[in-house]
Amino acid sequence: MTQTTKNQNSPVERSGRPGQRQRERELRKQRRARRRQLLFSGIVALLILIAALTWAIISARQSSEQAALADTHATATANAAVAQSTQAANAANAKATADVQSLIKANPKGLDTPPEVTAPLQKTATGVQYQIIKAGDGGTVQSGSTVAFEYTGWIQGTNKKFDSSYDHGGQPFAVTLGQGQVIKGWEDGVNGMKIGESRRLIIPASLGYGSSAQKDQSGKVIIPANATLIFDVTAVAFTQPPQQNAQPTN
Fold this sequence. Notes:
Layout: H1 2-9, H2 20-106, E1 122-123, E2 129-134, E3 146-155, E4 160-164, E5 173-176, H3 184-190, E6 198-203, E7 214-215, E8 221-223, E9 229-238
Antiparallel strand pairs: 1-2, 2-6, 3-4, 3-5, 3-9, 6-9, 7-8
């Protein structure tokens, strides 16, 4: 009985150790704080990512627009250059055509004898003598150039005409220099001419046909052996290479 009464009056022990609930509350607060911090960090990271993506999209769009603008500018520049080049080529062709027509009008037929030329006599390094009859103002004729010429040729001494482009309707004679398409004296004599220039060439036999007489299809001699040749030539225009090689002696 006494024992029973003693047990009933004994204080009841509380579950857990003192201060445990307070520590648990602190831990819960800390966990909530970490969650808030993580959430805040995630939101900040997401905002940074969105800003980066937005900047990348804007930059790509600006780059695309700039590239398109550059392409448009480049295309316009190229088209303008082509148009300018075409215009210049058309102007040059028109001038060449007008010059040819003017030459044909002044020379409906090649002159039978060479007209007198009073210009100073000059000489190339190979021995071709020449006189500038009329100065030109176009590009310079040089080795590798393909040039259209109007010409008339005579034999020195007899002054007999043997060939002329004017006797063929004024059709210019096209030759590419440096490829052996014409006699050596012709190539040396026209080298350095300006488009539009007229020049007289006096070509010794050694730079012409030498000891070989030139005959027509019937066998008639048109250029005797060892003949010195006289050519009056006009550089009309630069042109495309001729389809067939030819010599201005037919």
